[in-house]
Design goal:
Length: 564
């Protein structure tokens, strides 16, 4: 790592810069990428971060999920700050910072650096110059049938063109690959844990499309006539082709449209900045998507329940966190519809559980002890559905204080699950319900209570989420996680996570559980639960049993029955 920093600094003179900025994202602005430029320079492996290398100082910015992890991985060579310190960054002044214009939006640059410093575009990525990024195999894009996604491409394009006409616009530039995936009912293999098709799409008000991507990846789509030859643009020939389009203006979303592409479009067209409407369209799942997600979660619940039974009741060997994660993945692999994990499994025992997004590595991970509590956050990509679930489990009798905190987290989890969405209709309002019982004891957690989840896509998606600041209305068909927690540094971590979907019964909106796996009863202080909370838990475990017990062996089934 030190060598790379030294090597990067040696380039400052040539490019006439005082520093260089390295974000976590790639040029598609996806959360999880196969590229790891930030890790190359900083050793930080989290999913959210940004590094700034100056001539004699280095800064790393991240969020509350990675406070401990960033210090462990990068603390020796970096000053570490929360993302809030990036806004109008004044930690250094009057410097010229180099950036790769394909990796930033104009809004980011304006918000972060332009008040106190200057920016210089460096067309070559300097991290790639130092360490050539590994070429990843081109996995061809594939299309999903209407009976899987529940809506035709034509129907989706109609919604987009209606939006364009309403906004008096000629084109929309769809720069987020997951939104291209939704529009064209396609998937790919460009994410490490998501079926993302790295591509961009132009849609005109007359419903014409231009898919911008790598020809190798799109051959199947062209062969099967999902897209026509004239509807495809090879990413390498984009500049000349885009300038031949007729019209006056383009809608771009500057959360995922880079400076490079914005400047290219701006050279001929007027730009109108709007949030891509597809985020919201995609967030509201139709009945077919919900049905497929329910089925994926039954398969996933079977795998997780088998694992929980095995690790608590069968396994007598001392195993490491990595071995536990591998065993869980093997249970998932027993199902032919399982494709791969939806993110790297977080299996944190004892003090490692307090690292919110901990990643166990074979060469340095803990052996799970009987006295530990184990936080296991994992998920799968299935044909067709995406799962994400966290269970905190124990192997011996735990202290009263730990059981009390687990129960307060559980009370928050139940409060979210039983929300009257007609009354508490935004993530901001629901988030208060989740934290209420911890807050009474002056306890809290430094992450959101829930995120949106994609249909056989990204495990994290917006615009909806359950956080202290999110004001997006919760609507029928949305899928969210419900995951309050508590983390005691150097001791333990607790999190209980289910995925839920929003269902309308008559005129009332309510959350319905998708996740079907038992919640650790050995960590509950039942004296702290109300009758309603006990009833909720009973009904939840009864539903889990009724949906998954037929897939379990007799011993697993008998054990699961003890939760009712």
């Amino acid at each position: 790592m030190k060598n790379y920093i030294k090597e990067l600094r040696s380039k400052f003179k040539k490019y006439e810069i005082d520093g260089y900025v390295i974000p976590k994202n790639d040029d598609y602005f996806t959360e999880y990428s196969k590229l790891n430029r930030l890790e190359v320079i900083s050793n930080f492996s989290g999913s959210a971060g940004l590094a700034i290398i100056l001539k004699n100082k280095n800064y790393l910015f991240t969020d509350g999920r990675y406070t401990i992890q960033s210090k462990i991985e990068s603390g020796k060579n970096f000053k570490i700050y929360g993302f809030e310190k990036l806004i109008n960054c004044s930690l250094f002044k009057n410097l010229t910072l180099g950036i790769d214009p394909k990796l930033f939006t104009n809004t980011q640059i304006k918000n972060y650096f332009l008040k106190h410093n200057k920016i210089k575009y460096v067309e070559k990525n300097l991290i790639d110059e130092i360490k050539k990024q590994k070429e990843h195999t081109s996995i061809p894009f594939f299309s999903l049938d209407k009976n899987i996604v529940g809506e035709s491409i034509n129907s989706k394009l109609n919604k987009i063109t209606k939006y364009l006409k309403k906004n008096k616009c000629d084109y929309i530039f769809i720069s987020a690959p997951e939104n291209v995936a939704w529009t064209l009912n396609i998937r790919g293999g460009d994410g490490p844990n998501s079926p993302i098709p790295n591509s961009r799409l132009i849609v005109s008000k007359s419903k014409k499309i231009l898919l911008i991507s790598n020809l190798k990846k799109c051959k199947q789509l062209l062969k099967n006539k999902i897209i026509k030859k004239e509807e495809f643009l090879d990413v390498h020939t984009l500049p000349s082709k885009i300038l031949h389009l007729k019209g006056k203006n383009f809608i771009v979303d500057d959360k995922s449209c880079s400076i490079f592409y914005e400047n290219l479009i701006k050279s001929k067209f007027k730009i109108i900045k709007r949030e891509d409407p597809i985020y919201l369209l995609k967030a509201i799942k139709n009945k077919t998507e919900i049905k497929n997600m329910i089925n994926a979660h039954i398969l996933d619940g079977v795998a997780l329940t088998k694992f929980l039974f095995w690790i608590k009741k069968i396994n007598k060997k001392k195993i490491t966190e990595v071995e536990a994660a591998k065993k869980l993945e093997n249970f998932r692999k027993l199902n032919k519809n399982f494709l791969y994990p939806s993110f790297d499994t977080i299996a944190g025992s004892g003090k490692n559980g307090a690292i919110v997004h901990y990643r166990a590595k074979k060469e340095k991970c803990r052996t799970i002890n009987r006295n530990d509590i184990l936080l296991c956050d994992s998920g799968g990509q299935y044909k067709y559905g995406t799962t994400d679930v966290t269970r905190t489990i124990c192997f011996s009798k735990q202290k009263h204080s730990i059981k009390n905190i687990f129960t307060k987290v559980l009370k928050g989890h139940i409060a979210v699950a039983t929300t009257d969405i007609n009354k508490d209709d935004t993530g901001k309002k629901i988030d208060k319900r989740a934290r209420k019982f911890l807050n009474k004891s002056n306890l809290d957690y430094a992450h959101g209570t829930g995120h949106g989840v994609g249909f056989f896509l990204n495990v994290h998606e917006g615009p909806q989420s359950i956080t202290k600041i999110n004001t997006v209305k919760i609507r029928e068909g949305m899928i969210l996680s419900n995951e309050p927690g508590y983390y005691k540094t150097n001791e333990y971590g607790i999190r209980i996570e289910n995925l839920v979907y929003v269902k309308k019964i008559k005129k009332n909106l309510s959350f319905q559980n998708l996740t079907m796996a038992p919640i650790e009863k050995d960590l509950i202080n039942f004296d702290l639960l109300t009758i309603d909370e006990k009833n909720y838990l009973f009904k939840y475990h009864l539903e889990v049993y009724s949906k998954i017990s037929k897939y379990l062996n007799p011993n697993e089934r008998s054990w699961l029955a003890t939760f009712i």
